Amino acid sequence: MRNVQYISASAGSGKTYTLTHKLADAVRGYSIDDKGNKTPVTKIEPEQVILTTYTVKAASEFREKAKAALHEAGLHDEAIRLDQAMIGTVHSVADGFIHKYWYRLGISPELNVMSDEDKDFFINQSLASLPSEEELKFLNKYSYQFSITYKYGSGKYGINYENWQDDLKRIVDFTTNYNIKDYNHSKEYSEKVINGLCHKGTHVEFDKKAARRILSRLNDVNNNGSQSGAAQTRRDKIEEFSRKLKYFNYADMVSLRDFIYKFPKTQCPQDAIDFANTLDGIWVSEEVRDAQLRYVKLLFDYAQRWRDLFADYKREKHLIDYNDMEALFLKLLNMPEVAANIQEEYKYLLVDEFQDSSPIQVRIFDRLSEIVDRSVWVGDYKQAIYGFRGADTDLVKAVTGIIAKKQNGCSTATLGTSYRSYPEIVDVCNKVFVPAFSYMLPKDQVELKPHKENKDRKDNLRVWSLEGSNAGDRLAQLAYNIAYEIKHGKQPKDIAVLSLTNANLDTLAEELRPYGIPICRDEDNALAGDETILLTSLLSLLVYPNDELSRAQVAMLTVPGYDTAKILDEKLALNNSKDKTKRFLGNIPLVNELLSKADTFRLQSVRAVVESIIIELDLYNVVAHWENPQQSRATLHSLIESAAAYEDRCLQMTLPATVSGFIAYISDNGITAPGDPDGVRLYTYHGAKGLEWDTVILLSLDDNPGDINKLVSRYYFGVQAFHEVMPSSENLYPDMTISVLPWIYGSKRSAPDEIESVVTETERFHNISKQRLSESKRLLYVAMTRPVKELVLAPSAGKTGLRIFDSIYAGTTLETGEYKKPGLCDPLGVGVPFLSEAKGDAELDNMEWHYSNIENRLINLKGSPCEESLRDIQPSGTSVENAKIEVALESDSRLINISAHPDMAVVGSCIHDIFCSLDRNKTVEFAKQIINGYGLNESLKEPTQILSAWNRLENYLTENFGKDILRYHELPFKQLVDGCIVTGSMDLVWKTYKGCVLIDYKTFPGNEQLALTPGTHYAGNYKGQFDCYTNALEAAGETVIARYVYYPVTGMLVKI
User: Fold this and answer.
1) Between 800 and 523, whose confidence is greater?
2) Number of helices (H), then strands (E), in the chain
3) From CA 322, how far away is CA 177, in angstroms rounded?
């Protein structure tokens, strides 16, 4: 590190102004102080600047403000030349140098950049292929044995059999964020921790016969005693245990043990207590240890295999991701000749938001500081809140400590004035955070002087004590208070509500709707409301017309009077009906209209079918009657945009774009809707960083960062990354360790006593406690420094309403105070008065006031569908005259027997999916799983027949064209044909050294002569479809040597 000036820039202290004017000073060769005095500085040219910041938007804003500063100084030519400076995110700067020096890296200059979203998409698509069938059985058993359920708020319930994928994604994220090269140490560390929690020689000994006998005795004792409500509760629990006994998992065993221990002592038989005692050692047993050790080994093995798979994929597709860019950039900087060239061209490095840097980014800045003449890094440790994105706050703190020693030309400076907030807000922040950060930051890096004057009102620090027995009631009161403020003159867009979690914001958004108050959510927040449910339900019905859940959701959202009770009544009536032709909820207009147009919709691309459903089924007018029609329409528009994004992503990733895939994509990624630009802002503390509003209301003030149960369950257990050796001047870049310690205690929020007592004595746990407390302080600092004019605390009315302050005050002389009574108070105990308020308004009490004054006009966008020319079609929708065909394989009677008259479109999709999956898992059991997923157990009773149909095709292709060197299932493409955008996917491309063979599957079960005779089912009708495929492959430089339609039901193969 050489010639670096680190500027500590607290919230609102004008860091952007400082950076832009430092740049302007360097360009003109001198600086000017407030009195007009000039001080010479080393002059640079605009083209000699490198500046990095966190976002593309911030980089663009900086460039424009720097230009303005140069124009202001009369340096007009230099302002124009600033466009030649290297200004952007770390990744864009790295990309610029990589494209300049690609030949020194031995890579292609035509590499494409893979976005984080594309990488996430690849991760989601590829993880499921990693386990073998035997391993998958273990993973499923593991989830069941330890009762691993979906997390609260996920919208899913029951055993989470995909939990291993969530853990593996965390490992992959840490691997890429921290550039971890090897898992051996992490695996050894995780195994050491797990072994340390086991008591050697302790075993699980669960005798089901003995358990059933004990339950019977307890039931007899309970029935002979009091017939109180407690006795009935025990009776119900005994029945539940007896019913589940055959399938008991570890959580059930512990639950039974605890039930026996809590049984009335005067009634509980001794043998029952003895039996319970045998279950005391479950969580420290060797069986539990061995299951965890195998789970951990598998995850690290999968992580290594996935990394190799990802590297191969990027190499094959000529892609690099952002982590590759940083690694290649650092490699270039360490090449002497490249470093010499950069030293000639660039003299000045500016780094914004230094506190958010990852380890490799710090290495890049470190190396650049040794190459260029001067560096200015601006950051604020108090706002380092992005550790979950890969920022390393421990490393950043160590680096700033080295710079503070003022060696090798390094220096520090502090911006000490707040240009954002009114004096009262600055004052309370000073008095809270100077003592809170005193253990690690000097006073001048925390305390600010106010620049603004409060010309509006003096009671701009307020407390709204929220009454209510639950979060819903309290947030309803907050919505009432916000409505009061808006009714009395505030603009919704000037109010922001900040919370630690999205759950609070989701509930508040619903509570604001009855008042007609518009809302604007954080753009990073995925919205999945009724609009999304309606569209995905309609899309599901395109794929599975008998999907009862989707029918029920459409009914409840679009037909007045349909609720859960009515739907259950109709389901019971259908079950009791003798008319087997009736469909569940067959009278729902929107469903019937959808199915009447299903054939047309199925010819369209995913994006086109989403757009068509929204417009042709008139969904814009459907949602016009909902509570927030403007927001609902915006969400529908965002769904169309998401469909287009999904198609483009599939195309780039060479994955098929399907309706089912889009539904899964929405489920995994949500959608991003812009919200109402005039609405109340609802943001998380993390999402609020860098923003400001006139009025800011803070929720989540009862959070307890010192909660031992939470520290153990969320931050010690699970998949975590941490420094075993902290960064220091002697060892600035120690490796990160990934700890995998699965949470195996079911839905419990605390670990068993025998586990927690060991964990809480470890050095790592004490480090976690300190880090969590420090992070909590930084988050609260970010939140409290967002307001310009008014800060409103919105604690719950209970004793723990301001608990987060009690936690950060630990070790200081500060204590929170009373805040519930109306009037002036000192809730934070810092000597700064807040006004405690209780709102009241008759119109609001009677729900007679409504903010919205915009007339929601119904617009008929429906019109008549254009049958003649579809803008977006699939290849099967292209027209063609009758074409010649040739039978390559005669029909072999019937290879696949189909019963129970299923929807053949669904059967086709099922067989397609099985064919696509056989390369990975060619077993009858796997085919059964797919058939079960489609609900076709009664129709496709012999999965071996489907495997035989595939073997027949595979053998023919091998014998006639040779073994494939590559095969593509569902290969996607997009092409412009006669003014139409044709998008789709090729069922099978069998690539050999001679060229490609194209196969399309058709599950037509009828007489083979119908496929060989011109007419509706004539195989030659698909010539246009194959021409589209051929053109797309030839455009990609491939040669097509043959084209076939394969009928797997009959085994017939027809050459087109």
Assistant:
1) 800
2) 40, 29
3) 10
Contact by Cβ (8 Å): 150, 157: yes
Kindly state the tokens that stand for 432.
């809270």
CA end-to-end distance (rounded Å), the chain? 68
Do residues 165 and 303 touch, judged by C-beta distance below 8 A?
A: no
Whether residue 853 has pLDDT greater than 50: no
| Secondary structure letter of residue 851 according to DSSP | -
Residue 52 β-bridge partners: 88, 351
- Give backbone dihedrals phi and psi of 974, rounded to 5 degrees, phi first: -140, 135
| CA distance linking residue 46 with residue 27, whole number of Å | 6
User: Phi-psi category of 953—alpha, beta or left, where left has phi over 0 and alpha has psi -120 to 50?
Assistant: alpha
Nearest to 8 by CA among 394, 269, 287, 381: 381
Give the max Cα distance, the chain. 98
The H or E element containing residue 883 is none
CA separation, residue 603 to residues 597, 867, 907, 1020 (Å): 11, 12, 17, 18
d(CA 901, CA 898): 7
Pair of tokens at residue 205: 């000994």
Q: What is the CA radius of gyration of the chain?
A: 33
Report yes or no: 503 and 700 within 8 Å, Cβ to Cβ: no
User: Do residues 280 and 257 lie in contact, with contact meaning Cβ atoms separated by under 8 Å?
Assistant: yes
Mean pLDDT, all residues of the chain: 87
pLDDT for 804: 94
If 0-12 CB within 10 Å is exposed, 13-18 middle and 19+ buried, where does residue 37 land?
exposed
Q: Note if the pTM is more than 0.90.
A: no
CB 146 within 8 A of CB 742: yes
- pLDDT at position 870, please? 45
Cα–Cα distance measured from residue 371 to residue 375, given in angstroms and rounded to the nearest whole number: 10
CA distance 20 to 633: 41
CA dist., res. 754 & res. 751, Å (int): 8
859: nearest Cα among 622, 675, 631: 622
Distance CA 1008, CA 616 (A): 37
Concatenated DSSP letters of 946-964: HHHHHHHHHHHHHHHH---
The pair of structure tokens assigned to 922 is 């060619």
Per DSSP, which regions of 308-452 are E strands? 319-321, 348-351, 374-379, 411-415, 417-418, 449-450
Spatial contact of 363 and 331, defined as CB atoms under 8 Å apart: no
Please provide residue 402's backbone torsions phi and psi, each rounded to the nearest 5 degrees.
-65, -45
| Percentages of the chain per state (helix, strand, coil), in multiples of 5 | 50, 15, 35
pLDDT for the residue 859? 37
CB 507 within 8 A of CB 519: no
The structure tokens listed for 854 are: 């915009």
Can you read off the two tokens belonging to residue 350?
A: 């500016």
Contact 931, 940 (CB under 8 A): yes
- Residue 499 burial (10 A CB sphere; 0-12, 13-18, 19+): buried
What does each C-alpha distance from 235 to 130, 216, 269 come to in angstroms?
45, 11, 16
What the block records as the tokens of 349 is 């490095």
